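Fold sample X.
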Amino acid sequence: MTDSDDAGEPGYDAAFVRRWLIRTADVVELEAGHLTELDSPIGDADHGSNLQRGFRAVRAALDQGPPDTPGGVLVLAGRQLISTVGGASGPLYGTLLRRAGKALGDAERVGTGELQDALRAGVAAVAQLGGAAVGDKTMLDALVPAVEALGDSPAAAREAAERGALGTVPLQARKGRASYLGERSIGHQDPGAASSALLIAALAETAA
């Protein structure tokens, strides 16, 4: 997190967003096997490896010289994910970050409210792309409550994301590969919601 602005609100600059995404890449490396285990019974058993490949590409791009605005960093990361990750997760995560980055524009530093609004725009784009809503057993079940809680604090966003991800266990999948299983998808945590909770956790850890 950067220094506070004149109103006392914490600000987020390009360096912060870069640290957030690098932290996400670190966590994905650690949790890739678990994400794939979650994906095995209801998906293609590749969610962890796909995200691992994508965030390795994000890290490499950021190491080469990240943009100097928070929005620019997010757009770059989103493009990397779309171009390197197979399956549905690449377009979905890429759309989330790229749309949020575009919403931030060229500002060199943004406040919590601006970051929240940008992520809300990114989540809306994900919902439109996937045709999903909260309760469909997707990443939205973690992202939507997390973004709403971000107005309170990044820590609150993390807690909301983790609750949302765990809350997918009793749900029947209505979108994505898992929806083909019908009632057999009940009892399994959605891997996209789990990885989304990791993304938000990395945000909270970076802010702390």
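Fold sample Y, listed below.
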Amino acid sequence: MKTITASIVLAGLLVSAQAHAKAAPRKPSAPAASSASTAELEAIWDMRAALNVAALQCQSDPMLALPDRYNTFIRLHEDELKRVYNSLVSKRGGQAKFDRINTQTYNRFATIKQKVLFCTKAADISVEAMNAAPNQLLTVARGAQPTFTQLVNGTLIASAATIRQ
């Protein structure tokens, strides 16, 4: 019964977030990408990459709704992510170099050994990313960076309270 209730609540929250995304266009504040350092842009792009990998790898747990959350995140923050992408391509020395670095980033997230913990943490971060104000992804990315770094390094310890199988 708990699972059914949780699924219904989660579905309602996701539908609400998606309806909000369609109904309430966000007004951009000052574009962060134009004044951000390369490290700040990379933090945002790495978070996006981690959430993308999670959306692809964590589909076995429908309660996490990661594909839908990722798509909503992309839709809500499309303009900011385009600016980050364009800035990184430029700052990283062109498309070919950007693609090589991006492939390495994806591979780091795709090879995390603690998949259940990765999926759970990515689901939490995806909610923060979806709900971030326009042009405020850097704040979420800075908060997510230590978690994703610990997951990649294998130093984040799962507790019974953190994951439930």
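Sample Y note: The CA atoms of residues 6 and 111 lie 29 Å apart.
Also: The chain has one domain: 36-153.
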